[in-house]
Design brief:
235 residues; alpha/beta; Rossmann fold; globular
């Protein structure tokens, strides 16, 4: 662990105005450390996805600050946030968003136009255990395999941050473990800081740190003495 790569202070996000306003984030202080796996845990509506979107530059806060290293993202315009996402952040969502007419290799290769030194698709897919499925189309792969292609696509630009929103939400326990193992391998081999959003409390044990959210606030933070490998999680 080193200095935080992401730092949020007094972060607020309000949707709407007046009596109908919804405070999705209500004064959140948050750090993501270099090289850690962090689990953001909470029920639907707790603010965890909103927090991830703000940290990833997909949405702007209503108040407070968010910094990537020494750079204040909360002051950036749309063009600057686009550069931040392109150069530093990989996203993995619950739904895979693969191009159905492209093979696994071709889906991963799409990021090659976005960065200067992309990882070869073969290397990225090998890292998530799909070295033997390079030329398969999404329709020829299971849900877990498609999600691992999505992870390979996210890491092919060698991001500093990997932000994952319910990456196992559409998967069964066995397949979900394989996806989590892929995230652990990316963290181990690349040193990427990984944040995983989930409502599944079992997943919390795979992280270095667990942040529990409720009603747009951080309700509790705890450190795990030991990461539990995904294969050991009592799904």
């Amino acid at each position: 662990m080193g200095a935080p790569v992401l730092t949020a202070r007094g972060l607020e996000k309000v949707y709407g105005e007046g009596a109908t306003a919804v405070r999705a984030l209500d004064g959140v202080d948050f750090d993501l450390e270099r090289g850690e796996i962090l689990v953001l845990l909470g029920p639907s509506g707790s603010g965890k996805s909103t927090l991830l979107n703000v940290l990833g530059g997909l949405d702007a806060p209503t108040g407070g600050t968010v910094r990537y290293l020494d750079h204040d993202l909360s002051r950036d315009d749309d063009d600057a946030l686009t550069r931040y996402r392109r150069e530093h952040v990989g996203f993995v969502f619950q739904f895979y968003n693969l191009v159905p007419s492209l093979t696994a290799r071709e889906n991963v290769a799409l990021v090659g136009d976005l960065v200067d030194k992309p990882m070869p698709p073969e290397e990225a897919l090998g890292m998530v255990g799909l070295g033997g499925r390079l030329d398969h189309f999404p329709s020829q792969m299971s849900g877990g395999e498609q999600q691992r292609v999505a992870i390979a696509r996210a890491i092919a630009k060698r991001p500093d941050l990997l932000l994952c929103d319910e990456p196992t939400g559409a998967l069964d326990a066995k397949t979900g473990r394989l996806v989590l193992e892929a995230l652990v391998e990316v963290n181990r081999r690349l040193g990427t800081s990984v944040a995983v959003i989930t409502h599944n409390a079992v997943i919390a044990d795979m992280g270095d740190r667990v942040v529990q959210m409720k009603d747009g606030r951080i309700a509790e933070t705890r450190h795990n003495a030991r990461r539990r490998p995904p294969a050991e999680l009592d799904w």
